């Protein structure tokens, strides 16, 4: 047993560092450099961050020691204290349709107006190309059979609409605009799908450290539905046996405090059976994505 104590000052320091976007690994390194035993530092950080998450009504499941993943980071989280039916997102009242704690999934209604959905699709349409995904073994992008949609990226704050939506997301999820990637728009034609995957970058892949240099890990996702497909195209969470219906203007949020399957955030876009499906995705990083 160690005699090193988690003082209120250390607790405060850990929260401040994590809130400023420093990764759990960076904090751990700093603590070890200050003379902390690595195992004790890991436990201390875990305890402080768990308590912080618990105060926000969140928990991060414990994982067997033999498969211990990286320590937990802070995550975006809407203020649903008191179980409100609506939340104010700074410029708009958003409905809380469903909230699940493990995995952490929240479905919002009326996150975007019909006009905003239409404008976003119109702005994205001329720029759509066959979707590529980031290859974590090399850090490059490639066409992927698991994702048979067309997509494009806006730069963060690229136009007034993106800026408005990004600010709304930041307010709703209490996460800095600067930690968000640019909005991605995807169009799925009939038969197209996005096979179940995790949005975080796999720490075991050799290309991941390069990707993480810009903004750190992804810790949360907001998928916004820009239209209502006639049939199919739900967002599925196989570990929770949950399927979120794609409804124009609705959005599904999920967070993952560590880049690990124990977050149960495996998810996918089910095949579209009839009509088209359009979504906009916002990925949120642990740190500033500049
Ligand atoms: O289309 C969906 O429902 C899911 C999209 C998704 O998983 C993503 O953009 O990362
Ligand atoms: Fe995803």
Could you characterize what this model shows?
The protein is an alpha+beta fold and 290 residues long. The protein folds into 2 domains: 8-56, no CATH class; 86-285, Jelly Rolls (Sandwich). The protein has helices at residues 8-19, 24-33, 38-55, 114-124, 160-173, 208-212, and strands at 86-88, 93-100, 104-109, 129-130, 132-134, 141-143, 150-153, 184-188, 194-197, 218-225, 231-232, 235-237, 242-244, 251-255, 267-269, 272-274, 277-285. The strands form 4 sheets. A 9-stranded antiparallel beta sheet has the order 1-2-3-14-10-17-8-7-4. A hairpin with a 3-residue loop joins β2 and β3 (104-109). α2 packs across α3 (38-55). It starts with 7 loop residues before the first helix and ends in a 5-residue tail after the last strand. Fe (ii) ion (FE2) is lined by residues 197, 199, 221, 267. This is 2-oxoglutarate-dependent dioxygenase. Pfam families: 2OG-FeII_Oxy_3 (PF13640). Its cofactor is L-ascorbate. GO terms for molecular function: iron ion binding; L-ascorbic acid binding; procollagen-proline 4-dioxygenase activity. Residues 179-286 form the Fe2OG dioxygenase domain.
Overall 3D geometry? globular
- Rg of Cα set: 19 Å
Bound molecules: 2-oxoglutaric acid, fe (ii) ion
Helical fraction equals 10-25%
Structural class: alpha+beta
> How is the main sheet built?
9 strands, antiparallel
Oligomer: single chain
Q: How many structural domains does the protein architecture include?
A: 2
Based on the coordinates given, report the CATH architecture of the largest domain: Sandwich
């Amino acid at each position: 047993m160690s005699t090193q104590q988690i003082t209120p000052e250390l607790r405060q320091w850990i929260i401040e560092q994590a809130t400023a976007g420093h990764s759990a690994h960076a904090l751990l390194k700093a603590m070890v450099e200050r003379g902390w035993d690595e195992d004790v530092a890991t436990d201390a950080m875990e305890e402080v961050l768990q308590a912080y998450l618990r105060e926000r009504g969140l928990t991060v499941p414990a994982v067997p020691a033999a498969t211990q993943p990286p320590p937990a980071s802070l995550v975006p989280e809407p203020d649903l204290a008191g179980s409100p039916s609506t939340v104010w997102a700074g410029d708009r009242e958003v409905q809380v349709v469903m909230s699940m704690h493990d995995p952490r999934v929240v479905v919002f209604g009326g996150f975007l107006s019909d006009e905003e959905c239409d404008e976003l699709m119109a702005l994205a349409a001329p720029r759509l190309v066959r979707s590529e995904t980031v290859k974590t073994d090399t850090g490059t992008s490639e066409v992927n059979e698991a994702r048979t949609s067309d997509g494009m990226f806006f730069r963060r704050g690229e136009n007034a609409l993106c800026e408005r939506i990004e600010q709304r997301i930041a307010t709703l999820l209490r996460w800095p605009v600067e930690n968000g990637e640019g909005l991605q728009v995807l169009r799925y034609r009939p038969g197209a799908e996005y096979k179940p995957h995790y949005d975080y970058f796999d720490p075991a892949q050799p290309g991941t450290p390069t990707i993480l240099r810009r903004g750190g890990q992804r810790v949360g996702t907001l998928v916004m539905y820009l239209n209502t497909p006639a049939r199919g195209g739900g967002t599925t969470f196989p570990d929770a046996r949950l399927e979120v219906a794609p409804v124009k203007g609705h959005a599904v949020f999920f967070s993952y405090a560590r880049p690990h399957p124990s977050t149960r955030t495996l998810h996918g876009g089910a095949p579209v059976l009839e009509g088209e499906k359009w979504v906009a995705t916002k990925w949120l990083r642990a740190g500033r994505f500049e």
